[in-house]
Amino acid sequence: MELICDKQQCTGCGACWQSCPRRCIRMISDSEGFLRPEIDAEQCIDCNACRKVCPALHKMKKEKFYKQQIYAVQTKDMKMLSCSSSGGVSGVITRRILLNHGVVYGCAFDSSMKATHIRLDSVNESSRLFGSKYVQSETGESFTKVLLDLKRGKNVVFFGTPCQVAGLYGILHDTSPANLLTVELICHGVSSPALFAAYLRWQEDKLKEPITDF
């Protein structure tokens, strides 16, 4: 099988398959449940679009005169804080953007308890993004949807791990539109989706009922 980058470098961000004009790349789960790209060699036209956006092959450009500043932040909304893993910052940002008719992308569990990136345009759904997921998220078509929203003039916020944010900027060709805010999580690697699924099954067997929230 043809590789886009070394398997040990691949983060499974999904930028490669989202950029493929022939849709000849699929994201396939490996033995541990981590997503890896698989290329259909018969359909591939060697355009190298996938390699051009791969964050493992191209390091992001650093701002030359960027001054780093660090803040400790906590929401004053006690209900939001109780539903959050830390200070509730993502909830504050999400609601602010959605109340101003923007859109937000972030990780949520679907009905089968799979972590996946979703698009929100209603503040009524903002709680779906609260709390840490501790497992690799499927980005799906979120990068290309972000690009479409930006072209429509929407204010967009994207929450993700550093590698997912890098994958998004790869799709955007390293540009940073004024109407885009990206928020990276401090990340030391994500847990195995296969192990997480096995853990949920174990809990369901122990509790004798399905897991609906985590």
Radius of gyration: 18 Å
Number of helices: 7
Question: What distance separates the N and C termini?
Answer: 36 Å
Quaternary status: single chain
> What does the main sheet amount to?
4 strands, mixed
Strand order of the largest sheet: 4-3-5-6
Mean pLDDT: 90
The secondary-structure class comes to alpha/beta
Strand content: 15-25%
Helix proportion range: 25-40%
Question: Low-confidence parts, pLDDT < 50 over ≥5 residues?
Answer: none
Task: Provide the succession of SSEs.
Answer: HEEHHHEEHEHEH
Instruction: Give the overall shape, derived from the CA principal axes.
Output: globular
Tally of extended strands? 6
Explain this structure to me?
With 214 residues, the protein is α/β, with parallel strands linked by helices. 29% of the residues lie in helices and 15% in strands. The chain is built from 7 helices and 6 strands; from the N terminus they run H-E-E-H-H-H-E-E-H-E-H-E-H. The strands form 2 sheets. A 4-stranded mixed beta sheet has the order 4-3-5-6, sandwiched between helices. A two-stranded antiparallel ribbon has the order 1-2. The chain starts with 14 loop residues before the first helix and ends in a 7-residue tail after the last helix. The relative contact order is 0.16.
